[in-house]
Every structure is written in C-alpha cells, then in structure tokens.
Design brief:
It is found in: Membrane. By secondary structure, the protein is mainly α. It has one domain. The chain contains 4 helices and 2 strands; from the N terminus they run H-H-E-H-E-H. Strands 1-2 form a two-stranded parallel ribbon.
C-alpha cells in the first residue's frame, strides 16, 4: 500500500522515474545509506520499494510532505539541535530494527 501512496505523490510532482543498476538494490534485510536526502528523494526512492528513512525535521511544505510520509511508512524524523531528540532517535532506531513488522 505504501508504494502506491508514494507513486501517487510522485505523479503529483510530475515525476518520470527510471531506475538503473537494479542489481545494486539492497536485498531483504539490507541497508541503503545516503547523505542529504530530501523528502522529495524519499518519494522517488520509495516508488521502487519499501524504505524506512531517518532524517531532519523540515517545516513548511516539506514538513507537510514529511508528515504525510509517516502515515504511509514508518520513517523517523528528528530535530538535530535537540539533544533529547538524539537520545529518542537512538531508542526508536533500536526499536525499529528489532520489530519484525517494520518493512
């Protein structure tokens, strides 16, 4: 269901997506690491498969997109400047990694 939601979002952005080198896609249980992904990158990536993202909270229109994405897939967003958020994110990441129902 979440892939369908992301495809609708991508079409709303008028995106035409072509994926190359599919053999490099993470296998089940694998990890994909990227630096400086934006909410739009998340929409494009999730058109091809299920990914759970971790990243900085955004405001404005990007914040609206982030909040919508959380409803479709269990992403973890945090505020970098808040030390308590860093500890909370660490706990949420551990919980997410041990939960078999997540992706």
């Amino acid at each position: 269901v979440h892939i369908m939601c992301y495809r609708i979002c991508a079409r709303g952005l008028s995106a035409t997506v072509h994926y190359h080198n599919r053999e490099n896609k993470p296998k089940k249980g694998g990890i994909c690491v990227a630096n400086h992904t934006s909410p739009i990158d998340v929409v494009i990536l999730c058109n091809d498969g299920g990914y759970a993202m971790v990243g900085q909270v955004h405001g404005g229109l990007m914040g609206v997109v982030q909040r919508a994405m959380v409803r479709a897939c269990p992403h973890i967003w945090f505020e970098r400047s808040e030390m308590k958020d860093r500890h909370l994110v660490t706990k949420r990441l551990k919980d997410h990694a041990t939960d078999k129902k997540k992706l």
